[in-house]
């Protein structure tokens, strides 16, 4: 039997349970509605396909550092969310298929039933990122596109209260704030609010920037905004660094160095090794920036994940990308994610390990 593929540090599998959303954030393609090809049609990922993907990874012995149940829609809208989530948790606990099972939610559908289903004491890390981005109603409406501020605040407060009462280990709450020009003025107030509520309930909490530190305590998490051009990314990087410095929050090394975004990026992108993305219709691509599926590898409706991600087409792409050749990958030619904090590093050792396994 062939050995499992190499476990690459920083790897994560993104699974889009739905492209439907209850908000329309200005920094998300959902705000474009049906004018954006990813949202011309909407629906839910086939539950059997999701479970089969997890089973395929278990059978192969493959491992990812994280499974992320989110892309361009609200995952709690999926009618079988709990079934899919628990199946992934069991695979993580029994087979170490995933180092953690991560959920990103805007909190609009964090109902009492969802809360009770979520609370647990499993031996699997479970961060839940609540995408909030504001602490005032007016700002929330401007950023999120819909007036659901009070609903979301109440839902998350109910979640925290239930977690405190039950003593449940998981999920770990992450209060996410993407720093931009439209919400910068209330970044500190956002931090003070969620830190204060957690402490009132007896829940350990701290703030972090650029990355979520290991642990089980609640985190007020500040992220930088990813932008479509080098110039906009430069402004975003600077804005983010300035605000985090003002709050006394340390940044990952690449942000502290303040390196500039370069218009040419010959280095190998980690997405082709570490971040497969499965859309709600079963399409597999190489990173979350590819919402037009320009780098589409194939469909899980037609082939197993293992045969697509570790198959011939991806092997050929990895050879080219390892040499900095993006000639056949138009999307990648204008990408600045490797100069962002929201990027997994790729080492020559990672590339060599994958190439050696594929050559067997």
Task: Explain this structure.
- The protein contains twelve helices and ten strands.
- It has 360 residues and is α/β, with parallel strands linked by helices.
- A ten-stranded mixed β-sheet has the order 6-7-5-4-3-2-1-8-9-10.
- The chain starts with 11 loop residues before the first strand and ends with a helix.
- α1 (47-60) runs parallel beside α2.
- It is globular, with a radius of gyration of 20 Å.
- The model is unreliable at 256-265 (pLDDT under 50).
Q: Please give the share of residues in helix.
A: 25-40%
Structural class: alpha/beta
Tell me the overall shape.
globular
Secondary-structure element string: EHEHEHEHHEHEEHHHEEEHHH
Which consecutive residue ranges, at least 5 long each, have pLDDT under 50? 256-265
The number of helical segments is 12
What is the strand arrangement across the widest sheet?
6-7-5-4-3-2-1-8-9-10
Average residue pLDDT: 90
Which value, in Å, is the CA radius of gyration? 20 Å
Give short descriptive properties of this protein.
alpha/beta, 10 strands, 36% helix, single chain, 360 residues
């Amino acid at each position: 039997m062939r050995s499992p593929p190499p476990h690459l540090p920083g790897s994560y599998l993104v699974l889009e349970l739905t492209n439907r959303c209850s908000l329309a954030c200005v920094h998300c393609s959902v705000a474009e509605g049906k004018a954006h090809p990813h949202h011309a049609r909407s629906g839910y990922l086939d539950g059997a396909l999701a479970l089969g993907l997890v089973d395929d990874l278990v059978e192969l012995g493959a491992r990812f550092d994280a499974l992320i149940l989110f892309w361009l829609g609200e995952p709690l809208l999926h009618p079988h969310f709990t079934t899919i989530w628990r199946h992934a948790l069991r695979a993580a606990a029994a087979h170490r298929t995933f180092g953690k099972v991560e959920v990103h939610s805007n909190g609009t559908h964090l109902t009492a039933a969802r809360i009770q289903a979520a609370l647990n004491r499993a031996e699997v890390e479970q961060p839940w990122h609540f995408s909030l981005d504001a602490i005032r109603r007016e700002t929330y409406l401007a950023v999120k596109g819909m007036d659901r501020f009070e609903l979301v605040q109440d839902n998350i407060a109910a979640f925290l209260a239930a977690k405190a009462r039950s003593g449940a280990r998981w999920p770990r709450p992450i209060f996410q704030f993407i720093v931009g020009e439209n919400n910068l003025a209330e970044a500190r107030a956002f931090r003070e609010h969620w830190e204060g509520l957690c402490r009132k309930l007896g829940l350990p909490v701290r703030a972090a920037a650029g990355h979520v530190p290991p642990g089980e305590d609640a985190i007020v998490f500040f992220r930088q905004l990813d932008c479509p051009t080098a110039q906009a990314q430069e402004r975003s990087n600077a804005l983010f660094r300035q605000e985090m410095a003002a709050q006394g929050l340390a940044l990952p090394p690449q942000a502290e160095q303040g390196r500039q975004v370069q218009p040419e990026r010959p280095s190998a992108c980690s997405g082709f090794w570490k971040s497969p993305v499965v859309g709600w219709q079963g399409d597999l691509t190489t990173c979350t920036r590819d919402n037009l599926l320009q780098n589409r590898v194939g469909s899980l409706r037609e082939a197993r994940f293992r045969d697509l991600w570790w198959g011939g087409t991806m092997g050929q792409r990895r050879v080219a990308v390892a040499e900095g050749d993006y000639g056949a990958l138009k999307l990648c030619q204008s990408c600045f994610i490797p100069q962002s904090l929201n990027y997994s590093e790729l080492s020559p050792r990672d590339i060599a390990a994958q190439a050696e396994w594929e050559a067997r």
